[in-house]
Amino acid sequence: MRNSNALFGLALLLFAGFLFYLLAPVLTPFFLATLLAYLGDPLVDRLQRWRLSRTTAVVTVFCGIFLFFALIVLVVIPAIGGQIDRVVGKLPNYGQWLQQSALPRLAALFDITPGEFRIDDIIAAIKDNLGSSATLLKNVLAKVTGSANWIISFVSYLVLVPVITFYMLRDWDAMVAKTAELVPRKAIGTVTLLVRRSDEVLGGFLRGQLLVMSGLGLIYAIGLTALGLDMAIAIGIFAGLVSFVPYLGLIVGMALAGGMALLQFQDVSHLVGVVAVFCIAQAIEGMVLTPKFVGDRIGLHPVAVLFAVLAGGQLFGFMGVLLALPAAAVINVFLGYCKQHYLQSDVYADDDPAPPEDPENEAAPELPPPENPEP
Asked: Are 309 and 211 in contact (CB under 8 A)?
């Protein structure tokens, strides 16, 4: 009976996975809305403790999200576009400095003969392909919107995701309670434990690490802007986004900012300012941001995070990227639970008595020394 139930469960799981793979494009807005509702539920619960109704709290959170994206669209994106325009306009100066100063110094330093670097041709190709930020955005939109499928997907995401997120966020607690009622009573303790641990790991990573990434991106952007660096906002935001892997944001951001500083100021002294900005940001992250927002709640190794995101994107596209971290958190908790039970099992414990020694290999007993005869 148990074997038949196990086979039925395995077949049902395989069928569900196959159906999930087929319906991945359709299910993407629902999973994105579920993820947003999961992230926003603690904030809604906190607003409810301030004597707001659930619906009012959800509307308040939605207004905050709308203002956040409006700030990005109206302030951040135009600022990045202006910086791109300035950099494109300065490309001939950068190329001239590279050709006349930087490359000869490098050749003399390493005692090599530089090849024929056609810097002017490279600069012209970059300008032809990029142009201004407005032209770049226009070309991207023209290529993207040329696909009818993309337009339908974009409109469906734009309409469905906010609507689904609103209703899921409003009824989140009720849905969790209804789901808990379906769990078999004999397994409710184990399931509750695993769900609670998964929530701690996933919530600690998503909510906490997103705040840390946002804080680092803001610090990087402000510091590099104070140095007068072109592309400061874009480099700062990008370095903050990739900082979910420890030291990756530091290395990538410092390399990009250092290269931009060399091209723009054409000296080494400004590199000290770039290094200072990133060192101060790392100190703030280690002493303030990570202890406050993340603490010790994360149980996902950075390598596991990278593998989960890449594998999810390869298997299921954008929806796989969305589900990568939740799946990794659940698998991590489940493996930890299995490890704990294994360490407490008889298979791991050494309770067997020691085997008897082989009499053939047993050493002969030592004889007492002979007594001295009396004289």
From this structure: no
Residue 232 and residue 83 in contact, taking contact as beta carbons nearer than 8 Å: yes
| DSSP result, 64-87 | HHHHHHHHIIIIIHHHHHHHHHHH
Cα separation, 320 vs 114, whole angstroms:
46
pTM equals: 0.69
Closest CA to 120 of 135, 148, 100: 100
Can you say whether the dihedral through the CA atoms of 227, 231, 233, 237 is positive or negative? negative
- The torsion angle over the Cα atoms of residues 231, 232, 234 and 237, rounded to 10 degrees, is 170
Residue in the structure block whose two tokens are 């077949």: 11
Who's near 284: CB < 8 A, 6+ residues apart?
Answer: 215, 219
Name residue 296's amino acid.
Answer: D
The one-letter code for the residue type at 131 is G
CA atoms of 83 and 205, how far apart (whole Å): 32
Span 256-277, pLDDT tens digits: 999 899 888 888 888 999 999 9
Question: Which of 98-102, 273-277, 304-308 is the least confident region?
Answer: 98-102
With beta carbons less than 8 A apart as the criterion, state whether 174 and 37 touch: no
Structure tokens at 303: 């390598």
Query: Among candidates 12, 39, 328, 70, which has minimal Cα distance to 172?
Result: 39
Residue 115's alpha-carbon distances to 83, 110, 111, 118, in angstroms, are: 32, 14, 13, 9
- Identify whether the C-beta of residue 50 lies closer than 8 Å to the C-beta of residue 181: no
